[in-house]
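User: Hey, quick favor. My workstation is busy. Could you predict this chain's structure for me?
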Amino acid sequence: MTDLESLSHLLADERLTDAEHEAFESMHGYILAHGPKLTPKQSAWIRAVASRLELDAGELTGPAFASGAIPVGKPVAVPAVLRVLPLKPPGRKST
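Assistant: No problem, here it is.
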């Protein structure tokens, strides 16, 4: 769930304090005006308030891969062919 959806979900809850409601309303307006970017601290605060209010934490986390719902496969070794690739492309030839 995105920050915008999380904020909409929290703003609908009546158990928020006045200060939280005002701050979340401000964040919601900022996202609508400037795009979906909140600081990591703001996103953490949203998750903390949601857990305090005992809202469904699964809805407020990121993608399934980040939350651990999708298992990570075992790591593989880098093939020898890929280890010898040049770091930069060759320069231009001058004529």
